[in-house]
Design a protein that fits this description.
The chain is built from 7 helices and 2 strands; from the N terminus they run αααααααββ. By secondary structure, the protein is mainly α.
């Protein structure tokens, strides 16, 4: 078990960007999709699903060790995009898309507006669909949620289903 744990640590830490990788990403402005939702949920809810505390610590370190490079890339103009890693036991489809934005604010240091843009306009730009999706604007395709509250101050309210008031899908 200890050897497996050590190997797992090495694999996760090997995925972190070194200075040369960060420089290449910044130079080319390549969008980054960190997808920390699974890790953050396992850290928060791992006790309830029987996760090994060591794995929870590994994921906690992965987020904290990545945060500085991700913030540096973002500050240098590299777009960050929201992912979700949906489909795992602690990240079922449609339940956790807000969580990535929470990690971006809490751990990477983005503002709530910047975090929301990782899930909207930044994704549209990365898919070369700016002007079609990614913003609330006349003529753009519209998938919108209306909530009670202002996520530009607190993105975590996007995950509070009791605040969900309306869903507009495909403009309807």
């Amino acid at each position: 078990v200890d050897a497996a744990r050590a190997g797992f640590d090495m694999i996760l830490h090997a995925t972190l960007m070194d200075d040369a990788a960060l420089e290449a990403v910044v130079e080319r402005k390549i969008p980054i999709v960190p997808t920390f939702t699974f890790q953050d949920n396992l850290i928060e809810y791992g006790d309830k699903v029987g996760a090994d505390p060591h794995i929870q610590d590994v994921f906690r370190r992965e987020i904290s060790d990545s945060a500085e490079n991700l913030k540096a890339a973002f500050d240098a103009g590299v777009p960050l995009l929201s992912g979700s890693e949906s489909g795992f036991s602690v990240t079922p489809y449609g339940e956790w898309h807000h969580k990535e934005m929470e990690v971006f604010v809490r751990d990477i240091g983005l503002t709530p507006v910047q975090a929301i843009q990782t899930a909207t306009i930044n994704g549209a730009k990365a898919m070369k669909m700016e002007g079609e999706i990614g913003a609330i604007k006349k003529g753009l395709r519209a998938d919108i949620i209306c909530i009670d509250g202002d996520p530009t101050y607190d993105v975590s309210i996007l995950g509070d289903k009791s605040r969900l008031k309306h869903v507009i899908a495909r403009g309807r």
